[in-house]
Amino acid sequence: MLQSFRRSFREEERLSRHAKTRRFETIPGEQMQTDFGETDIVIGGKTVRIKVFVSKMSYSRRIFAKAYFSEKLDSWPDDIESSFIFFGGLPRTVVSDNPKSLIKDHYAAREDRFNEKYEFFCNYYAVRPICTAVRKPNSKGKVESAVKYVKNNALNCVKFNNIIEVNQYLEKWCPEISDIRKLTDPVITGPKTPKKHWDFEQTQMRKISRPPIAQLRHEERIVDINGLLRGDNVYYRVPDELTRKSAGAIAGKEFITVVYGGKTIISLDKAGD
CA 32 → CA 124, 148, 166, distances in Å? Predict the structure, then answer.
């Protein structure tokens, strides 16, 4: 009986895997797709496996890449912010996969889907986060192909002394090699290189008007019964609505910002509060 019940669902899942993905294009400055890949390269005479973050502007197909030894919780905001700086502007939406470092619950409502830190990061830059369908990589196919391109072109048979050299190399490779590659996708009209498409797309990007925050320390803290939140061995008074709740504390050298539900609740001056 159970097998009979499951049969229709299994057939639906099988057909979805073989269904042709519907292609779509976005307007200039609208969407940036992001993803991580991994590859083996030679660093310091030894073959090591690294993680490569890749972002791609969906309209111009312009690429940014950055390498790490591991994919950590803080890697995504740092990479996305590095992309913003490289592109010199902000897209309206950022498309990612479903890593646990970003997603609390893929099937939750939009306001509860992403974790506190990533939600705050996106609100800070006023970009809309989008996570792709589970186990459907084609829903971010542009960056999927970009990851393969970076691994097979930029990092194929190249040797480095350290991870810093890897990223210095990628920073030059992106504008000098990737930007002038020929675009063979038949749906692309007009110029056939990312650089020429970018000449127009960059005029549609929003300006970056706020300082970088990805490297700031982010911690989860329980507000005590007295409405006090502890950060860096100091207690800070926060609104009573946060009493006994878990809130995010984003700490810099001179300030601490308390966030809840992805929104800034209060910012405090460490010297004066």
Answer: 17, 17, 23
Q: Does position 14 have pLDDT exceeding 70, yes or no? A: no
Quote the tokens at residue 40. Answer: 């083996």
Say which residues have a Cβ less than 8 Å from residue 151's Cβ, sequence separation at least 6.
Answer: 37, 39, 52
Give the CA distances from residue 258 to residues 129, 144, 195, 220, in Å, rounded to whole numbers and listed in that order.
Answer: 21, 36, 41, 10
Amino acid at position 198, single letter: W
Q: What is the pLDDT of residues 120-160, one digit of tens each?
A: 889 999 999 998 876 565 667 899 999 999 999 999 989 99
User: How far is Cα 244 from Cα 47, in angstroms, rounded to an integer?
Assistant: 49
* Residues in a beta bridge with 267: 257
DSSP conformation class of 207: P
**Which residues 6+ apart lie within 8 Å of 261 measured at CB?**
111, 116, 119
Please state, in angstroms and as integers, the Cα–Cα distance from residue 190 to each residue in 33, 185, 194, 196, 207, following that order: 22, 11, 11, 9, 25
Distance of CA 170 to the CA centre of its chain: 18
Indicate the pTM of the whole model: 0.76
